[in-house]
Amino acid sequence: MNKRLKEILERKQELRKLIEQDDNADLNAISTELDEIEAEERQIKDKQNIIERMSKGETIGNVISQNFDKKEIDMRSMNWEQAIETPEYRSAWLNDIAGRKVTEEQRNLISKVNEQYRSDFVHSTENKGVLIPKSVADGIWEKAEQTSSLWADVNKFKVKGILTLVTGEKNKNATWYEESTVVESEELKFGTVELSGYELAKSITVSWKLKTMAINELETYIINELGKRIGAALSYGVYRGKGPKTAQTNSKSEPLGIRTILKNTNKYYDNAVLSYNVLCQYLGEIPTTYSKNTKIYASRRTIWTSLATLTESGGKPLFIADPTNNGIHRLFGIEVKEDAGIKYGEILIGNLKDGYVANIQEDISIYTEDHIKERKTDYMSYAIVDGKPIDENAFVILKVIDGVDLDEPENTVQAL
């Protein structure tokens, strides 16, 4: 293990012991230090990954390998879903977006794959982006999940077109009967949740000087930057999204957020006062059928100012901090997860896995636009996504900070 990584791990363990053993520990100072060493840790690991990939011969800054012609015969019979998983397509795509030399074979491959892909999807965008290699798309979605705890825990599908899910409505349970009693009959009822698709687009601008970096470093940069921005937009959608456009709102269509559904119901507790007994009451609002995967979500600031300070009647802390676990802590044994998509002052308790569903109708593609005078290139990711709660009973929202305007619009989803 890298010497510095070992030191960082040891320091994380020291910070954890400090929190667990010292009731007067400075949580803000510990949190600040943790942010700094985790940033350093990520930088070291990224560097190691790049070096490891280079040692395996994955540095492909110029043209595709000499085996391309042999594999091209097989690739002509592949559909686009198979082709985007190949090293050949990844190499051609990276050279293309970086403005490097692209061979005729590579250009033909990119054209074939994207023409076939576009024939499978129809949307309102006139200028077509270039389909991302699967390894890059997976990297962006993974980074989005690292950025958004809400999106990471949502039940996700990848189905083309409109997705309709059948959901069970409340029906009577089985009943015990005497042998001579006629059994009462009841029609079994079902509900449906329909997901269409709304445009999700985020862009980054890269200087031409930055584009001259090693090709794998550029790939990592694009994955990290677009992944973080998409993650932030998806957090917004899952929690605060306004849903389909209506004549009354005249806003663009978005996924339907949990808060949007709960805001005017008895599942939203305004001016909630947190204490041991009261929190037990709120947790009891989640039905047994949703209890298994129930978690607590809030912004980092809300966690450390409202949840981390909770104690039992004897003064023992209820909150168990875990600085080594990517911002996941515990309260009553339940995971407490940080998510910046939830504004300061609100806490979401709920089961996202079983209570919310999302569909990625169209996977990520990238559009590029060069600005010659400014010597910059825009990289814009584009996908079609929708999501909505299946059952509002799977969630409870607590507003725990007074004097904070939580209804102020904060839309980070940008349509084309």
What does this structure look like?
By secondary structure, the chain is an alpha+beta fold. Helices cover 39% and strands 20% of the residues. The chain contains 14 helices and 14 strands. The strands form three sheets. The protein has a seven-stranded mixed beta sheet with strand order 6-14-11-7-10-9-8. Strands 1, 2, 5, 12 and 13 form a five-stranded mixed beta sheet that branches. A hairpin with a 2-residue loop joins strand 9 (328-331) and strand 10 (334-338). Helix 1 packs antiparallel against helix 2 and helix 7 crosses helix 9.
The number of helical elements comes to 14
Strand order of the largest sheet: 6-14-11-7-10-9-8
Structural class: alpha+beta
Percent in helix = 25-40%
Ranges where pLDDT stays below 50 over 5 or more residues in a row are 58-73, 122-127, 185-189, 408-416
Strand-residue proportion = 15-25%
> What is the first-to-last residue Cα distance?
45 Å
Oligomer: single chain
Number of beta-strand segments: 14
Order of helices and strands: HHHHHHEHHEEEEHHEHHEHEEEEHEEE
* Overall average pLDDT: 79
Biggest beta sheet summary: 7 strands, mixed
What best-fitting shape do the alpha-carbon axes yield?
globular
Q: State Rg.
A: 25 Å
